Amino acid sequence: MEITSFTFHSPEDYYNISSPWFQELDNGFNKKRKKEDDSRGGGGNGFFDEEELKKRGYGDILASLLLLEEEAKQEEAQWITESQQEKAFLESNHKRKVEAMNEYYNQLQQHYSEVDHLDSLSTAKRSRKSASALAATVATTSGNDNVNMGNETSKGTDQQRRLWVKDRSKDWWDRCNHQDFPEEEFRKAFRMSKSTFSLICQELEPVVMKKNTMLRDAIPVRQRVAVCIWRLATGEPLRLVSKRFGLGISTCHKLILEVCSAIKTVLMPKFLQWPDEKKMKENKEEFKSISGIPNVGGSLYTTHVPIIAPKVSVAAYFNRRHTQRNQKTSYSITVQGVVDQKGIFTDVCIGWPGSMPDDQVLEKSALFQRANKGDLKDVWIVGNSGYPLMDWVLVPYTNQNLTWAQHGFNEKICEIQNVAKEAFARLKGRWSCLQKRTEVKLQELPMVLGACCVLHNICEMNKEEMDPELQFDLFDDEMIPENNLRSANAVHARDNIAHNLLHHGLGGTCFL
Question: Quick one: pLDDT band at residue 439, thresholds 50, 70, 90?
Answer without folding.
Answer: confident
